[in-house]
Amino acid sequence: MKKWIALLLALVMVLSMTACGAQDDTPDGETPDDGASTGLPYEGQTLTVLYMSGVYADAARAMVPEFEAATGAKVEVVDYPYLTLHEKALLDLTSYTGSYDVIDVASQWDGEFAPFLEPLTDYIARDNYDMTVWIDNVLANCGDWQGTIIGIPNASTPQTFAYRTDLLPNGIPDTWEEYREALAAVQNIDEGLYGVTVSEVAGQLGGVFDYVLWSMGGNWADEDWNVTIDCPEARAALEHLYALKDLSDPANLAWGVDESIQAFLDGKAVVCETWPSLGIVQKGDDPAQSKVVGNWALDVLPSEKTGLTLLSAWDVAIPAGSQNKDLAWEWIKMYTSYEKQNEFYDNHGILSPRKEFWEQEKMAAQAAVRDALDTANMWWRIPASVEADSMINTIVGSYLSDQIDIDEAIKQLDAALTAALENSPPEEGIKNYNH
């Protein structure tokens, strides 16, 4: 009997130990890992992508579920406003920390970022990725740096104006003088209707000065980087911007894109001089968000002498410090695909730099915008660009707020551009195409 009892006790102990060994050690709320694999190529990897806050980051987040399902990877979307995005991206790039695997790069930063970005030549060749689909002028200004592809274009917008079709039935006039006269004729300040709203806050004002300057035939410098800002065209551009003060809300100098767009949507301005794809095209015909439904359209800015406008273009790139470059390339291919570019336009109002995108019937009404993409200008894409643009913003702002006169403004602009080039000289052999 004792022998059988001993055997029974031993059996109970074995069963008890087996049960303990099989005990679920998974923390509360988590599903036990049964070791099953999805078989997807990037299972277990995490991709971190960096975008500008707003519609570009929104589009990235919208793509995450599909990308995760296709690859097995997890994706984290990080975003910052434009005014801080450059600093955050540059810090990660120059330190090679690899915090981000994909960065959406404003094309004016291409030359500064290029040494820290992964050339995409091998990926393009490996996958027969077709680079002929992009609008030539956009690619030349975005992603292609000195013959090396460092980023793939993903969004491109020429500076266009939104205007009230009921008040300006013939659209935007051909010269800046005619433009001011037309605005003055229809504004009604007593009823809260101003002629124009402009993004004049620091970080945006420089671009406004640029497209007026370029359309008048002026430039920052000549082909060989000799500063040429002390010219009649620069003075005329400053005088034009000053004259707009009588045609805009007194608070306009402190307004950015959001405030400028909202004023137009609220029916408080005849023209909105800002990036329409950042709010107007999404909300303009929504009665819940707009008081100008059915009474607005887009047009190119006054052609004046050259017809050149400002180009906003972004390219998605891979930091050299990324540990997930192959996965990053898969993200770029999906994000820039024809299917996704169409989806991003339909859902977020993002204009694609793909040629075939503009050949669709739904884009026929924006033929003027498409034409502008063939000639739209970008300021310097060399490292000196950021310092130059920052100083232009400050100096033009000082002039418009009556802190300095026009002669002092021109003097300071000349000194600032000269200093920017001295502090960050262009690489040997690089010419200034923007002249």
Structure description:
With 435 residues, the protein is α/β, with parallel strands linked by helices. It has 2 domains: 46-157 and 311-373, Periplasmic binding protein-like II (D-Maltodextrin-Binding Protein, domain 2); 160-309 and 381-423, D-Maltodextrin-Binding Protein, domain 2, CATH 3.40.190. Helix content is 41%, strand content 13%. It is built from 16 helices and 11 strands. The strands form 3 sheets. The protein has a 5-stranded mixed beta sheet. Strands 8-9-7-10 form a 4-stranded mixed beta sheet, with helices on both faces. Helix 2 (55-71) links the parallel strand 1 (46-52) and strand 2. Helix 2 packs across helix 13. The longest helix is centred in the first third of the chain and has 20 residues, at 2-21.
Adjacency order of strands in the biggest sheet: 2-1-3-11-6
Q: Which class of the largest domain in CATH terms?
A: Alpha Beta
Approximately how much helix is present in the residues?
A: 40-55%
Q: Which H/E pattern describes the elements?
A: HEHEHEHHHEEEEHEHHHEHEEHHHHH
Shape: globular
CATH architectural designation of the largest domain: 3-Layer(aba) Sandwich
Task: Flag low-confidence runs.
Answer: 1-35
Number of helices: 16
CATH H-level superfamily of the largest domain: Periplasmic binding protein-like II
Largest sheet: 5 strands, mixed
Distance between the termini: 106 Å
| Mean pLDDT over the full residue set | 90
Topology-level CATH name of the largest domain: D-Maltodextrin-Binding Protein, domain 2
Supply Rg: 27 Å
What proportion strand? 5-15%
Number of domains: 2
The total strand number stands at: 11
Which structural class should the secondary elements be placed in?
alpha/beta
